Amino acid sequence: MGEKxxxxxxxxxxxxxxxxxxxxYFGYPITPQNELTAYMSKRMLEEGRVFVQSESEVAAINxxxxxxxxxxxxxxSSSSPGISLKQEGISYLAGAQLPAxxxxxxxxxxxxxxISPAQGDYYQxxxxxxxxxxxxxxxxxxxxxxxxxxxxxxxxxADKYRMPSMVMADGMxxxxxxxxxxxxxxxxxxxxxxxWALTGAKGRPRNIVRSLMLGGTGLYEHNEVLRKVYAEVEAxxxxxxELETADADLTLVAYGSASRACIGAVRYLRAAGKKVGLIRPxxxxxxxxxxxxxxxxxxxxxxxxxxxxxxxVDDVRIGVAGxxxxxxxxxxxxWIPTVKEVVDRVNQML
Amino acid sequence: xxxxxxxxxxxxxxxxxxxxxxxxxxxxxxxxEVIDELGIADRAIGIAPVGCAALAYDYFNxxxxxxxxxxxxAVATGLKLTQPDRVVFTYxxxxxxxxxGAAEILxxxxxxxxxxxxxxxxxxxxxTGGQMxxxxxxxxxxxxxxxxxxxQIHGHPMKVSEILSQxxxxxxxxxxxxxxxxxxxxxxxxxxxxxxxxxxxxxxxMVEILSTCPTNWGLSPLDAVEWLKKNMEPFYxxxxxxxxxxxx
Lengths: 350, 248
Known about the structure:
The complex is a heterodimer. By secondary structure, chain A is α/β, with parallel strands linked by helices. Chain A folds into two domains: 4-191 and 210-236, Rossmann fold (3-Layer(aba) Sandwich); 240-349, Rossmann fold (3-Layer(aba) Sandwich). Chain A contains 13 helices and 16 strands. Chain A has helices spanning 9-19, 34-46, 57-69, 80-85, 87-95, 122-127, 144-161, 171-175, 218-236, 256-271, 289-295, 312-320, 339-349, and strands spanning 4-8, 24-27, 50-53, 74-78, 100-108, 114-117, 137-139, 164-170, 177-181, 208-209, 240-243, 250-253, 276-281, 283-285, 301-306, 326-330. In chain A, strands 2, 3, 4, 5, 6, 7, 8 and 14 form an eight-stranded mixed sheet that branches. Chain A has a five-stranded mixed sheet with strand order 11-13-12-15-16, with helices on both faces. A two-stranded antiparallel sheet of chain A has the order 1-9. In chain A, helix 1 runs parallel beside helix 7 (144-161). The model of chain A has no long low-confidence stretch (mean pLDDT 97). By secondary structure, chain B is of the alpha/beta class. Chain B has helices at residues 24-38, 72-82, 94-100, 102-111, 151-154, 160-164, 181-199, 214-217, 221-235, 244-247; strands at 44-47, 63-65, 87-93, 116-121, 170-177, 204-210, 239-243. A seven-stranded mixed sheet of chain B has the order 2-1-3-4-6-5-7, with helices on both faces. The relative contact order of chain B is 0.15. The mean pLDDT of chain B is 97. The A-B interface holds A 23-24, 26, 50, 52, 54-56, 58-60, 62-70, 72, 74, 88-89, 92, 96, 198-203, 206-212, 214 and B 41-45, 47, 54-55, 57, 60-68, 71, 73-83, 86-87, 103-104, 106-107.
């Protein structure tokens, strides 16, 4: 841990990526993540690393594909409509088993939507978005500190499992300033060697990076390899936090900016003697279904709070599996929940 | 016994999927010969397109990447900028490069990055069954221009090499053909220069190769060559379009 800085979330994402050893960054302008691209345009050149402002988000993710194929740590960032454009490349990264980090600083949708914070891309991030059966490890930070921590972990886990990972923040987290301390980068010594990288076939047989598996049973077998990788990620990388859940009659479930209001609501309601707790997924794929299943044994009700029309609530219902009612509270298009709104809604349910 | 002709070291022994009379195989061989002659097989990285040459990585005995349709210039950018001492080239057809990947190739050329592109122009989409390409000629029948390409309906055939030659970052652009030994030798020289330019750090270089697609043109291999000479060559003139060495 180094010095404590006061930084914008978007800039903390950039500095954390640089500390994590990001070799190449490719980006295209879109609000509300522009500070990240601007930060990288300066710092990456200062560090003697690669920065390109690409001609499109489509080009940016494919530049990432090239840099990742070279065995380098590569990152791109965008916001919701731009992330939609990257889905083709993300699917290819997953198919070709290339590690890379994608940052989504979410804004309102659908379509061009607006530039207000939102969480409307949960399905896209956790269910695919691009074609085919694939997964991303998706981090859901709720502070500038967590944004920095998650970028570093995203690079590490991408390399560990040879798959793309995503840090999914939103416009509020990207734009706000908070204190942040950058961790030391994790050692790469336990990571698998990138002996598949395209570095020129000097002294070894040629390498091929591809997702195309025409003919025979190649694609079937490749998908079984991916299934195994994803099962390992599900076994090892579930991350969530619990707040006052031990005796909670009502359990809130929220991530990202929405969880900040929920933390405030739990504290307020506890002070008023009400047994309310919070489960906060830190990673939204793989999802902490078991934690919810366990909580459903003691909690009578669940309330999911999201800045969308109800997406993660599906995962909560899978976890709770009908053992308790699961209600949803959320709006899309620029709504950020306040502590009071969450408290009022909880009081209606108690 | 004296060996007078053999497979380049940079080619594998795989049998290609290309149709009889298709020019992809000749283009592949010329690239492999150039890679051998320049001694760069251990630092060359190829990028295959989407289209008939999607499986090009099976035929070259060097590191190779696939790429989404049209995105080879972007993938090449990522590979090259992170490894400037490697020799990176894209191999793209007319649908891949001139249609879906038009933005990527234009910006790569304009940035002038040290990357080599081999552009196969056969005036049609081959892999998907003969649809109109950006380079399909006026009046040419394809599965999506059953009455022939009508300029009012389908727009004009695109002269990619001429367009890209206008961008400042380009070091070298030339158009060749491979339908007879003379043109094979000339085109090989173009390809060699396009790779040498990258090694010398001169900037973006591209060779367009006019090629046949007998299957989708509905012609025999020999008739296809005649069709190319009679129809494609007048509209897409062979020769050097830009060469910064000649301008100096």
